[in-house]
Write a structure and sequence with these properties.
alpha/beta; binds NADP nicotinamide-adenine-dinucleotide phosphate; about 30% helix; 6-stranded parallel β-sheet; 16 strands
Length: about 325
């Protein structure tokens, strides 16, 4: 038996239950992993609350992690006991040990620590596809990133800065503004106090942005559309404040023939070749030092409830991990 955090019924952070679970031997195509750490992500709260449907109940929380392979099942040829791996998997990461499909695991380069991997496989690969595939950020672009001091946000600020974009970030407090600035954000806006749409216009001298990356959702819509240049791109990649409600698609016409997309890492990394390419792009920028992965909160696995309370209470910055 090993320790894990399970959800037996949907609800608030209090439904996260620390308990013992059985982990069997790996089946065909699977490996067994002793986990180094699990990453904390907003998507974990969506599964916990029931906004996203888990395939079965009860389920073990957590969608990001890293660890060491301890056993391989039938048919697994490219992994062996002792290999270090990182992963984004639908659930099962808040646990000391787990089984995982070998074809969704990524071998970690020697220069990426287990802690870094647990903190970045989901958040960093998300930024990887957002800035290189969903919308190709280029030198000189004006880029608006909401919740710039968050887990995805701090990585996105550094990566867009590294490419040479003019990075504008919205944040919930002055401390978060300083942190975002220290991580490559050129201009910060306190979006709970300031008229952020007007501020974006001022900062860009009326030009607005080529792209807006919006993981906040309900509270920043439709304002985000007013920050985008004609023919620019609205990338709605998350719903930290709740999902955007149904809207009239003609809005995109009136705001300047805008493009809008609601992408997910699952779609972009569905094929193994894409998963590896997206991960390699991330390993490259982290390995070169262009992007660092700030692990600003570490929780014991048994304190998952506190971790969710802090994440939903806007108390965390950068990445957080849960350590068994
Ligand atoms: N589509 C994908 O592939 C994908 C993959 C990974 C993550 N995501 C999305 O990316 C977003 C960020 O995820 P993350 O795990 O890195 O979280 P995070 O940004 O570390 O935390 C969420 C942040 O959102 C801001 N926020 C604004 N309104 C909020 C509200 N009502 N309640 C709570 N927070 C609010 C807060 O920052 P301030 O205090 O600065 O406002 C908070 O710190 C989420 O929407 C997540 O679903 C999407």
């Amino acid at each position: 038996m090993v320790a894990a955090v399970r959800v037996h019924k949907h609800g608030g952070p209090e439904v996260l239950t620390y308990e013992q679970v059985e982990v069997g031997a790996p089946g065909p195509g699977q490996v067994k992993i002793k986990q180094h750490a699990a990453g904390l992500n907003f998507i974990d709260t969506y599964f916990r609350s029931g906004l996203y449907k888990a395939p079965s109940m009860p389920f073990i929380s957590g969608n990001e992690g890293s660890g060491e392979v301890t056993a391989v099942g039938e048919g697994v040829t490219d992994l062996k006991a002792g290999d270090r791996v990182g992963y984004v998997l639908p659930l099962g990461c808040y646990a000391e040990e787990r089984l995982a499909p070998a074809d969704r695991l990524v071998k970690l380069p020697a220069n990426i620590t287990g802690e870094q991997a647990a903190a970045m496989m989901l958040k960093g690969m998300t930024v990887s596809y957002l800035v290189k595939r969903t919308f190709v950020v280029k030198k000189g672009h004006n880029v608006l990133i909401h919740a710039a001091a968050g887990g995805v946000g701090l990585i996105a600020c550094q990566w867009a800065n590294h490419i040479g974009a003019n990075v504008i970030g919205t944040v919930g407090s002055k401390d978060k503004a300083e942190l975002a600035k220290a991580n490559g954000c050129h201009h910060t806006i306190l979006y709970r106090e300031e008229n952020w749409v007007e501020r974006v216009s001022e900062i860009t001298k009326g030009e607005k942005c080529e792209v807006v990356y919006d993981g906040v959702g309900n509270d920043t819509f439709p304002g985000s559309l007013d920050c985008i240049k004609p023919l620019g791109m609205f990338v709605s990649y998350g719903s930290a404040s709740g999902p955007i409600k149904a809207f009239d698609i003609n809005l995109l016409q009136f705001k300047g023939s805008l493009f809008a997309t609601r992408p997910t890492l699952n779609t972009y990394a569905a094929k193994r070749a894409d998963l590896i390419a997206i991960a390699n792009d991330l390993f490259e920028v982290v390995g070169s030092g262009a992007v660092t992965i700030p692990v600003n909160q570490k929780y014991a696995l048994k304190d998952a409830r506190k971790a969710h309370e802090d994440l939903e209470g806007r108390k965390t910055t950068g990445a957080s991990i849960l350590v068994p």
